[in-house]
Design a protein that fits this description.
- The protein is mainly alpha-helical and 147 residues long.
- Helix content is 83%, strand content 0%.
- The protein has 4 helices and no strands.
Length: 147
C-alpha cells in the first residue's frame, strides 16, 4: 500500500515539475517578447524624433543657406558661405538617420562587432555573478551597521 502511495506521489511530483518548467519557459518567452516590443518602440521614437528634428532643422538650414548666399553675393565675401558646410553635415546626418540607411548600417556594424570583436564587449572583472552581488551587499550592510 505504501508503494502505491509513493508511486502516486512521485507521479504528482514529476507532473508538477514539468508544469513548473513549462510555466518558467512561457514566462521567459513573454519576457523576451516584452523586451523586444519595448526596444522596437524606443527605436520608433528615436526615428520619429529624428524626423521631427529634421523638419525644424531643415527649415533653419534652408533659411540660413539662402541668407548666407545672399549675403556673400551682396557683400562679395565668400567667407559667408563657410557656415553652410558644417550645417550641411548635420542636415545630412539627420536625414540619413530619419529616412536613410544609417540604422541598417549601424545594425550591420554592431553585428560585425559582436562576431569579430567579442573581447571589446567584456565587462571589467567579468560577468556579474550572484556571489559578487551578495559580497557587495554584505559589505554595504556592514558599512551601515558600523555607523
Amino acid at each position: 500500500m505504501g508503494f502505491i502511495f509513493s508511486k502516486s506521489m512521485n507521479e504528482n511530483l514529476k507532473n508538477q515539475q514539468e508544469f513548473m518548467l513549462m510555466n518558467a519557459r512561457l514566462q521567459l518567452e513573454r519576457q523576451l517578447l516584452m523586451q523586444n516590443e519595448m526596444r522596437e518602440r524606443q527605436m520608433a521614437m528615436q526615428i520619429a524624433w529624428s524626423r521631427e528634428f529634421l523638419k525644424y532643422f531643415g527649415t533653419f538650414f534652408g533659411i540660413a543657406t539662402i541668407s548666407l548666399t545672399a549675403g556673400a553675393i551682396k557683400r562679395k565675401k565668400p567667407a559667408f558661405l563657410f557656415p553652410i558646410v558644417p550645417l550641411s553635415f548635420i542636415f545630412t546626418y539627420q536625414y540619413d538617420l530619419g529616412y536613410g540607411t544609417l540604422l541598417q548600417r549601424m545594425k550591420g556594424e554592431a553585428e560585425d562587432i559582436l562576431e569579430t570583436e567579442k573581447t571589446k564587449l567584456q565587462l571589467p572583472k567579468g560577468i556579474i555573478t550572484f556571489d559578487s552581488i551578495e559580497k557587495a551587499r554584505r559589505d554595504q550592510s556592514r558599512f551601515f551597521i558600523d555607523k
